[in-house]
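Why should sequence recovery work at all? Because a backbone constrains its sequence more than one might expect. Tight turns favour small or flexible residues, buried strands favour hydrophobic ones, and helices have their own preferences. The token representation captures these environments compactly. In the example below, the structure is given first.
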């Protein structure tokens, strides 16, 4: 298991595994309930696993401020990334009034969340100077987030709480109930509804590695293309090429601004501005039994 490979000192009882993927709301509630059972006054952080942080010193400072806000005023704290281009693949957070009596880094009440806008809307957001990218990094007291779930998602809260009443982190009731829980994000389930959400705008060399375009941002050199693995190209520019096998070769002719990925039996070819649609293709594969193994 990759988590234990990277954190071999982690106690097994502290490794929580979802019985089924149900998006972030159910996973966060599950973790919060488990933490509260041990330490009801704890502060909880949520950190996506596929992000890169270059400036760890600033990142530590930002998280420290988030912890203070969570402890002092029971805020649900989000970390916003100051945008430097009109990204259409990220969610956005609009900030409102500044928090009063907030020592340290400035924080603001959240006015609204917006999911992945089109290019024109994203540019308009940048022009206002009031929007941050939604990093998916959150900090809150477990008591505060549980109170929010109880208020805004009572059925989810009650069902998962009941499932955890049986002893042990992995029990038959949890395994039976979890796949039937609503598949929804923490943003939609809680953050868009709660009135105690605040954002700390920050810059710490953040990058979302969950998109193939991240390879270009991280590995771009002086060449026209970014290639991981063997590539031979003719009249090809602005391409991202990736092979999982050192024996494979990707050959391209007359292509511009594309991503080509070769992994096992699957080859992906997609325009760089359409990589967010890869999930739709995966869903198509999963819906067809004869193709599901390729998903």
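From this structural description, the recovered sequence reads:
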């Amino acid at each position: 298991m990759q988590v234990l490979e990277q954190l071999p000192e982690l106690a097994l009882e502290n490794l929580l595994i979802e019985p089924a993927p149900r998006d972030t709301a159910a996973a966060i509630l599950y973790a919060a309930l488990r933490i509260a059972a041990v330490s009801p006054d704890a502060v909880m952080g949520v950190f996506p696993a596929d992000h890169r942080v270059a400036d760890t010193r600033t990142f530590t400072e930002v998280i420290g401020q988030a912890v203070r806000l969570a402890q002092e005023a029971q805020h649900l704290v989000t970390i916003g990334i100051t945008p430097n281009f009109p990204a259409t693949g990220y969610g956005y957070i609009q900030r409102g009034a500044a928090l009063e009596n907030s020592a340290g880094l400035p924080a603001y009440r959240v006015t609204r969340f917006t999911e992945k806008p089109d290019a024109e809307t994203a540019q308009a957001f940048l022009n206002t100077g009031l929007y941050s990218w939604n990093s998916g990094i959150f900090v809150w007291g477990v008591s505060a987030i549980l109170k929010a779930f109880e208020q805004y998602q009572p059925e989810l809260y009650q069902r998962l709480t009941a499932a955890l009443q049986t002893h042990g982190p992995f029990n038959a009731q949890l395994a039976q109930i979890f796949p039937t829980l609503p598949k929804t994000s923490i943003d939609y389930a809680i953050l868009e509804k709660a009135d105690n959400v605040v954002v700390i705008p920050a810059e710490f060399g953040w990058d979302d590695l969950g998109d193939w375009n991240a390879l270009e941002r991280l590995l771009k050199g002086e060449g026209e293309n970014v290639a991981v693995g063997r590539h031979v190209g003719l009249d090809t520019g602005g391409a991202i090429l990736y092979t999982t096998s050192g024996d494979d070769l990707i050959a391209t002719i007359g292509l511009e601004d594309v991503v080509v990925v070769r992994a096992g039996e699957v080859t992906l070819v997609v325009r760089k501005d359409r990589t967010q649609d890869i999930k739709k293709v995966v869903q198509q594969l999963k819906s067809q039994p004869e193709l599901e193994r390729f998903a």
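A few observations help interpret the result. The chain has two domains: 2-208, 214-294.
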